[in-house]
Write a structure and sequence with these properties.
It is built from 4 helices and 7 strands; from the N terminus they run αββββαββααβ. Helices cover 28% and strands 28% of the residues. Strands 2-1-5-6-7-4-3 form a 7-stranded antiparallel β-sheet, with helices on both faces.
């Protein structure tokens, strides 16, 4: 059951446009990070304060049907705002190319986080530089198939 509610587009134009292109093309365009050729997914979530539907592109880090959501924000010293959304409500919809599925976000720690961090850096090496300069530990969530029971 996809998340329902009023969509609040990102205030950042290039984010809004990438989400729009990705979704309107059925996941055939806007699916990479600019001209890097590196794949991107779209994660739909619920705003922790607004309750509105938010959609963000993230680098595609996938392993055996699960994905990482890396709250890097380019190495910025503060967490991205979407981090607080996933903490408040872990239900997300993930679009990977043409495929959309309900998933549940779980923040990682310890060895499990280290394992997914290695996978993330392998998929997108700049994450390592972001961690160097962020002055915070970049949070990593794993997105696992299915929504928890209860109203979406
Ligand atoms: N960001 C990453 O952190 N990791 C990635 O791997 C990543 C890859 C990526 C690939 C392509 C691309 O185009 C962008 C990519 N980004 C990546 C950037 C990502 O999509 C986000 O734009 C970025 O991480 C910043 O997220 P943000 O949530 O901080 O965005 C701000 C600008 C924003 O949208 N602010 C909104 C606003 O109105 O100012 C509010 C957003 C929000 O979710 N508000 C919540 C609500 O209730 O609606 C409240 C949140 C709270 O604080 O409780």
């Amino acid at each position: 059951m996809p998340l329902e509610g009023e969509y609040e587009p990102s205030p950042a134009q290039w984010i809004r446009e990438q989400v729009e292109l990705y979704e309107s093309s059925g996941g055939t365009r806007g699916t990479t990070l600019r001209d890097t050729g590196l794949p991107v997914v779209i994660v739909t979530m619920r705003g922790a304060k607004s309750g509105r539907i938010r959609k963000i592109p993230l680098m595609r880090v996938e392993h055996q049907g699960r994905y990482a959501a890396v709250a890097s924000k380019g190495g910025f010293p503060s967490h991205p705002e979407w981090y607080f959304n996933l903490r408040a409500d872990p239900r997300v919809d993930l679009q990977d190319g043409p495929e959309r599925q309900g998933m549940t976000a779980r923040e990682l720690a310890g060895e499990e986080r280290d394992q997914w961090w290695r996978r993330a850096v392998a998929a997108y090496p700049p994450y390592a530089e972001y961690q160097e300069k962020a002055g915070r530990v970049i949070p990593v969530f794993v997105l696992e198939p299915g929504h928890p029971a209860g109203p979406a």
